[in-house]
């Protein structure tokens, strides 16, 4: 994976590996170098899993912990986000073990979609990803200017 001047290379693309009988997933080859030294897998929104390189997870955690403890919304988010988090180091074959509670949360069985989402990787049940993408594709072109003013 190429990187720019500051060493950042976004995660891109969609891949369709399968979970093995032990709940392991072979990470796409393009993602392995950025995740090889360690990662955190946790609950994401829309019933998918987020996979962060350790450095990105630390950056996010630093941001999250700046939220006031007096905010119930911040406390709730922090609890859900961190209580499901597992730090892992992929094995020499680039496999990631996904804990059973996280597989259950995301409805992962055998067929999965692994997508690049910029600073993170997302792991979806393949059918759930297809349904989500189909639902979102309709509004995709309509929201570009609203979400990213002046970018297009």
Automatic annotation (TrEMBL):
Pfam families: MraZ. GO terms for molecular function: DNA-binding transcription factor activity; transcription cis-regulatory region binding. GO terms for cellular component: cytoplasm; nucleoid. It comes from the Bacteria. It is found in: Cytoplasm, Nucleoid. GO terms for biological process: cell division; negative regulation of DNA-templated transcription initiation. PROSITE patterns: SPOVT_ABRB (PS51740). InterPro entries: MraZ, MraZ_C, MraZ_dom, MraZ_N, MraZ_sf, SpoVT-AbrB_dom, SpoVT-AbrB_sf. Keywords: Cell cycle, Cell division, Cytoplasm, DNA-binding, Repeat, Transcription, Transcription regulation. Residues 14-56, 85-128 form the SpoVT-AbrB domain. PANTHER family: TRANSCRIPTIONAL REGULATOR MRAZ. Belongs to the MraZ family. Forms oligomers. This is Transcriptional regulator MraZ. The lineage of its organism: Bacteria, Bacillati, Actinomycetota, Actinomycetes, Micrococcales.
């Amino acid at each position: 994976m190429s990187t720019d001047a500051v060493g950042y290379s976004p995660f891109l693309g969609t891949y369709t590996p399968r979970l093995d009988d032990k709940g392991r997933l072979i990470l796409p080859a393009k993602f392995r170098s950025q995740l090889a030294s360690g990662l955190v897998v946790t609950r994401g929104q829309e019933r998918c899993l987020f996979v962060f390189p350790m450095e990105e997870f630390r950056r996010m955690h630093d941001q999250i912990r700046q939220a006031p403890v007096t905010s119930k919304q911040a406390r709730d988010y922090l609890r859900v986000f961190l209580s499901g988090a597992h730090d892992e180091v992929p094995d020499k074959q680039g496999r990631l073990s996904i804990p059973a509670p996280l597989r259950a949360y995301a409805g992962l069985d055998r067929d999965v979609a692994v997508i690049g989402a910029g600073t993170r990787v997302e792991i979806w049940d393949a059918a759930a990803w297809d349904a989500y993408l189909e639902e979102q594709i309709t509004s995709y072109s309509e929201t570009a200017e609203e979400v990213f003013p002046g970018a297009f």
